[in-house]
Design brief:
Layout: H1 2-33, E1 38-40, E2 43-50, H2 61-84, H3 88-111, E3 114-120, E4 124-126, H4 128-148
Antiparallel strand pairs: 1-2, 2-3, 3-4
Helix pairs in contact: 1-3, 2-3, 3-4
């Protein structure tokens, strides 16, 4: 019984955190689209439209949607399995990936491109949804390496 309570508390925390990141990402996208720009040292906040995938890799159109659909199906099925097996780290990392991807796909449907708003050293632009996806993948990779050693 105590384990169930602990599991539920962990899920509530994870879900709240992931939803918070999603909301912040959506709000920052709206602010960027409204024309707000800010430069702080080497970080530039302004709107960048990205018609491609992460880090502006040139994948778009039908090929993008096929690739994205296959990956999303795999990640969501892994998330469901992780919930069933109560693997909290996997639930957290996969939730970050799924919700980050949902935020970016919403951009594609609403604006025709992903809205990025942070540019570091003018190298590449990204948004919090991208950071969520990368953090989720990073956690999964680290956990995989830990399990294999």
């Amino acid at each position: 019984m105590e384990q169930v309570k602990r599991w539920r508390k962990q899920l509530m925390f994870i879900n709240t955190l992931v939803v918070f990141f999603f909301i912040v990402d959506r709000v920052l996208k709206i602010l960027a689209l409204s024309g707000i720009e800010k430069n702080i040292f080497f970080i530039n906040f302004s709107v960048f439209e990205n018609p491609y995938i992460a880090f502006s890799l040139p994948l778009s159109g039908l090929l993008f949607y096929v690739f994205f659909g296959i990956v999303l199906i795999f990640v969501i099925s892994s998330l469901i399995t992780s919930y069933q097996e109560r693997k909290i780290t996997a639930v957290f990392s996969l939730s970050l990936i799924v919700v980050g991807a949902i935020s970016n796909i919403l951009d594609r449907f609403i604006y025709g491109a992903v809205i990025d708003y942070v540019d570091i050293l003018f190298l590449f632009a990204f948004n919090i949804a991208d950071a969520m996806i990368m953090a989720g993948v990073f956690i999964l990779v680290i956990r995989s390496i830990q399990k294999s050693t």
